[in-house]
Known about the structure:
The complex is a heterodimer.
Chain A: H1 2-10, H2 23-40, H3 42-47, H4 51-71, H5 75-81, H6 84-96, H7 98-107, H8 110-124, H9 127-135, H10 137-159, H11 170-193, H12 201-205, H13 213-243, H14 280-285, H15 287-310, H16 319-338, H17 342-345, H18 350-359, H19 374-389, H20 396-416, H21 421-426, H22 428-436, E1 442-446, H23 449-453, H24 459-462, E2 464-469, E3 475-480, H25 503-507, E4 513-517, E5 529-530, E6 534-535, H26 540-558, H27 562-574, H28 580-611, H29 615-625, H30 627-644, H31 649-659, H32 682-706, H33 712-735
Antiparallel strand pairs in A: 1-4, 2-3, 5-6
Chain B: H1 3-24, E1 30-37, E2 40-47, E3 54-64, E4 67-68, E5 74-79, E6 85-90, E7 101-107, E8 111-119, E9 126-133, H2 139-147, H3 150-187
Antiparallel strand pairs in B: 1-2, 2-3, 3-4, 3-7, 5-6, 5-8, 8-9
Amino acid sequence: MLSWLYVRGARGLVGRVSGFPALRPRCFFAGMLVLFLALASPIDSLGHMLLWVHMVQHFLLIMVVAPLLLLGAPGIPILRGLPRVVRRGALGPFLASAFLRRCLNVVLSPFTGWIAFAVTNWAWHSPLLYGAALESPVIHRLEHASFLAAATLFWWQIIQPWPWRARWSDGALVIYLLTADVQNTIFSAVMTYSDRVWYAHYEATAPALGWSALQDQQVAGAFMWTVGQLIMLPAAIFLILRALKIVRAPSPTGRVAPTRGDRIEPAAHARFDLLRVRGIGRLLRSRTVRTTIRWMLVAAAVIIVIDGLWGPTDAPSNLAGTLAWTHWRGVVVLALLFGGNFLCMSCPLIAPRNLLRRWWTPRLRWPERLRSKWIAVALIALWLVCYEACDLWASPWATAWIILGYFAGILLVDGLFRGGSFCKWVCPIGQFHMTQSLVAPLTVAVVNHATCDTCVGRECIRGSDRGQLKSQSVALTVRVPGCELELFQPVKRGNLDCTFCLDCVDACPHENVAIVVSTPSVSLTARSWGSSIGRIGSRGDVAALLGLLTFGAFANAAGMTGPWIEFVGSVAQAFAWSSSILVEAVITSSAVIVVPTLVLALASTLSARASHTTVHESFCRGAHAIVPIGAAMWCIHWCFHLVTSASTGVPVIQRALNDIGIGWFGQPQWAASCCGVTPTWLLPAELILLQVGLLVSGWMIWRGSGARSARPLLSALPWWCVALALWCVGSWIILQPMQMRGTASL
Amino acid sequence: MNARRLLCALSVAFTALTAFAPHAHADGGAVVDRAMYGAFDVTVFLSPIPPTEGVVDFSMLISRNGEAQVGLPGSLRAVGPSGIVTEVVFGAATSGNRLLHEARVALELPGTWEISVQIASDPHDVGSFIIGVAPAPAAVTTVLPWMLLWIPIAVLIIMRERLVQRQRATRHAWEDRESSDIPDRLLR
């Protein structure tokens, strides 16, 4: 990561700034290479067996890695390599703080460097701490980190990485260096001439490799002594020569600060455009490729439907029970969270709809009264309740009918009404994708607004006619549609209602529409008017949709935990209800409709009173702000299934192929159908992701509700409590035993 | 310098090093036993220290005449407090770091476990040693550090907000002072 940031930031510096010649990146990467060799090569393995090898490792960290990294002057390039929002928004205030600068001055003073160097050297080589480091990987890493940090502080004074200036004269630095060498020599001599073994650990390991422990210790001490001096003495001689002005400082040592003549290019590079990336950009821009992907997914949907209707009835051995609920959903959230709404782009429902429209042109316009998200809200609530109550995930038959229902729905709605009416006003999956992609890092946007100011055709929304050469003599005119969801690109805000269909990219004659990087979640607090959606912050239907999906994420995940299942059973028993479907329906309805309504109403009222705004406005702001924690929960839940049950697809596909007489992939390996061992990294990753959601939500609440009102803390407090409560519930869910859906043992 | 070429070279180097890394990483742990098993000198490392209920990582350094033996087949057997027996086979496939033979064993119960190592080429010679396994720590204590990471970040965010407010106030104060200076100078 650091290397990548360094490369990104060094691009505008190399050769253009007097203190930053091409040698600097070479030094930096040489340092990174040696760091890798020291920590992840056989040196680390052998260091556990032989003391002298461990000393070689420490020597590399202290005497080679730290100076090389500092010669690379990594400070400015890494800062320049950071995204602008992090550099200026997050770090900027800290870098500008006078108090923190004073602290930094203390940390970077020669006294601190010398003391840190000596203390780490003596402390970590004491038998107590050294033994602890050998026994615990965590303490071992801490030891290495402190060696590297102390060495960096020590060598900082000698090398003075660009653009910092020297605090002490060269003469004083010679004393600084020689006194450090003296303490190193004393320590090495004591180790070399000691007649007892310092570290008992090596008494067991060194003889196994043909060394005696004492012999090993003597070699280690001698190595530290001689090689330490081989580095420090030449450095001291160089400083003396420089003090006597016999040699000049070579440029990599960075004693030259940037002057007024230096032209440093701004760190903001050309805006990233996914459509310009070689390979993938060309594929995405191609209308044929997009259509082909949709038809391939139509074929997959047909196979899943056939298997769901006529295949095995148990979910773990059916394509509809595994691929739809385990794999597809996992891919959806990963794509949404780390990319954009690419799933709507490749939606298989669009392909037959477009085929139908070749022969049938709808005349009607979607009714004005229904131009809101309330239909989608009702459908999503229904889906969340039915999912738990009817165990949709356990029924391939029901899954197949849901897929068929979607195809019928889009053909009916878009067969009657113009544009993308189904996607924009009805499709629950589409609404899920579009709302969750509000926290995605990619968005379809205009590259240069000045081009749009002079545009008269407005092809991105109206569509355009493109000439296409069919043969040498015949030219065809092809109609390229504009945005079916009525988003006018120059005033589009965020990803809401954008299906990433890229029709606007095709239609724009100026090639001024692109898939660009945007700050995730920033559109959630936008107050400006957006094309087709109006002021997002005052749309009650959108806020209700977002609130439902946020609370739905937690209810949906809680439904698979052991305590929830026990609770449902005990409620059914207490009320003597024979139908578990009814009990599940009542409890899930409470969790996704009643509880969110009460919580959001209370938070909105309290926040509105504090900020002297309307309850409606407060509700809209708050519901938008808690989207990130909801998105995190969806990702945690569905990725859990994907990670723990990724192999379940293999035997099901083998079974399906065998059923149609294709035995190339062998007999189904049903052992893979049961849940595997949960990776150890999954739980920490889930907890971290939920916390990222909490922090982003907290920040959004502050920006949206708090910072702009008269009483900011009081205004934001109710919504912070909601976010914190959701985090507590999410953490509890993550720690519960999970029902492994779609993976029941056969 | 051509940044793109540098980036390409860096990517290739990183990929190569990452591919090499799994074989290069060392196993941690403390020495719990060292004994001669026939002609072999076997040193057993154990991680975590102290061992707790659950999966425990044993690593064996097997040497003969001072030379490490790599990929030597054998087995590690653990007999638990209630007679529960777990056996894990090690060999070339489990010598991940080219020096140690790794055997991950699930020690399901806390208490005293007897561990014995057998090397396949020397089947008659089996040595054993005893380790004490502590109960697994409560789930909350293991996950608590992961759950509370947001607090320091939230503190940093709050600090940033306060800094921004202070810096903005200072800037406004300077601007006010400068603008109030203008009429005075004009008057003079």
